[in-house]
Specification:
With 723 residues, the protein is an alpha+beta fold. It folds into seven domains: 179 residues, Hypothetical protein af1432 (Orthogonal Bundle); 141 residues, Beta Polymerase, domain 2; 36 residues; 92 residues, Beta-grasp domain (Ubiquitin-like (UB roll), Roll), CATH 3.10.20.30; 69 residues, no CATH class; 64 residues, no CATH class; 75 residues, Alpha-Beta Plaits (2-Layer Sandwich). 46% of the residues lie in helices and 15% in strands. It has 26 helices and 21 strands. Strands 1, 2, 3, 4, 5 and 6 form a six-stranded mixed sheet that branches. Helix 6 runs antiparallel to helix 7 and helix 7 crosses helix 9. The chain is elongated and about 110 Å long.
Amino acid sequence: MSMTERPDSLRDRLLTLPSMAAYGESLCVAIAAMPDAGSPLEPAEEAILVDTLGSLALLGSDSDVATAAIIETVAAWRAPMLARTPALAPLVEGLRASRQVWTLHAEHAGQGNPEGLRRLLLALVRDLRVVLVLLARQLAVMRAATRADSDTRRALAQLTRDIHAPLANRLGIWQLKWELEDLAFRALEPDVYRRIASLLDDTRAGREAYVAAVRARLDEALAVQGLRAEVAGRPKHIYSIWRKMQKKQVPIGELYDLRAVRILVDDVPACYAALGVVHALWTPVPSEFDDYIARPKNNDYRSLHTAVIGPEGKTLEVQIRTREMHEASELGVAAHWRYKETGGSQRASSAGSAALERRIEWMRRLLEAHADTGRDEGGALAEALGTELAEDRVFVLTPRGEVIDLPRGATPLDFAYHVHTMVGHRCRGAKVDGRIVPLDYVLHSGERVEILTAKTPAPRRDWLVAANGFLASPRSREKVRTWFHKLDRERNLRAGRELLEKDLRRLGLLQADLAPVLGQFNVATVDDLHVLVALGDVGPNQVGRALLELERERAAPSQPSAPVLPLRRPRRAPRTGEAAFRVVGVDNLLVQTARCCRPVPGEPIAGYLTRMRGVTVHRRDCAAFLRLSSGQPQRVLPVEWGGVAGGHESDILVEAIDRKHLLKDISNLIAQEDVHVLSIQSDQHALSRVQLRLRLRVGDYGQLARLLGKLDSLPGVEQARRS
């Protein structure tokens, strides 16, 4: 085929691209194996794809990134490419997820929250390399948009200015950032763009001659000092000039950096040596010196910037950096595809973008693994570092498409209080992506949340109980506390007493004396404790735990002397959980759980020596144990919980108003708490009342207490307690 002939198929045209050499043989083999695209791409679409591949090659992208860019455009190749390379799936999924952000931006016509959209994009894209594809493609689209109508150009420019250019800046990819900004500025402010461009053109010849003379003088001075350096003029970007004019409120002629040069040296000491040469030649402007080597920018940009009074008394900006710094400043995180970073730890973001910094660091390490160890080990590293991608924020959408930033683990109730305090107070339900969910549902990034409200505000006090999982945000909990703080003391006292009694009843501690634990909560009276419980400052479970610990401390010092017992082997193997008990001071005894109360780990317990079945372990408040111990106190033995894990059986009683789906709701809640149901018995009573007796296998006392609390909050449930 002659040089002037154009290949007939898209496949052949892609194979002849100069950029293909940068991606290696594997991509060429994959493209050659593809069928002809069903319907050829439009010339404009093909031009954008070619331009995108060229930009990705300049960024040093690997073949996976280039392949993802191809199949995003050529839909007919998507399935066969994914079949050949399953590892492409996260990249393709990330590109698909990004469309949601473009849609939301279009819905708001660029008037929404750009920072929220950028963060939503990063939350949806699990492989940060997707962002490089998005940036390269948007640059190609903007270059091609010069032939589109004005409305299309403005919409594309708005999207570029709001999303793509800031992301390129955050990733340090200035090679794309400057051009994206200039193209967007040209479309959004065409008159201002042309005015600044004409002013620069008017002085171009004189400025270029001046810079050439400065370069020659610097070359000579640096050589005298034995410094190996490259001196070049620095291109000016119209958008950055306009920004500086706006920021400093000065005309273009008073900007220091219209005349600028850049010095590239071998290492950091040479940077400061070159700085000394520059300051020895010309007088520096003190206010215009920045050391970004000692104090890098948030995107890891490093360089020395200084302004001097140069020849003819004109100001001159000089940038000094190593060649590695220059590579990083132009390509940002993408520079790590080509060059392995040497020395130094990554600096944490000082601007509060810790999650973004973790993602950048993850990508750097992943890309280094690709370069050093090959794809297989790099994939293993990506899998091992998957946990590092977890952020501490979620980004959800309002019904109007606005992005709301919430802490990880947030619920619809947190969302409601974030929107407005009164929305939270009036919240009675929620929909996520059109389906009704409970108020303790954990939100995920990208979900659309709608709050169902009542006419009057009526927050519930159990929202403040952490174990119930209604609120994850401290800000939301504080708003609920403030609501109840405004109520009078008598109402708070009554509500706190009811909350605490309900919890203690479930734990079998209703008759316990609260006075000994008041000091732990810094209150003087039981009434004060009830008020703290009502306001959510103290959880009912905290009081229950303090009472249990007190019972355990009281039992430990006064251990009765163990009676002389015949040592014998158990006649059978102990059942599940029996090895979790230890009789204080005595070994090799048959120990079993009492069937009447079935204690679970964490509860105060005691042992009773039977005549034929060894030691039976009861809860201390068990009615059967109290009856036996009062008659024969000498048979009571101190028993402790051991360290053997495993399930423990416990019987609970649920009394409720009979309604549709009651049993289903109870079963779902038990399943969510990872508790096993061993048996269930239902009894129907008068007045539409139902009584459910369940035998459960729980891990420990804490799990049982959480389950009882959530069962008690179900609609129609009057009480849920141990039986």
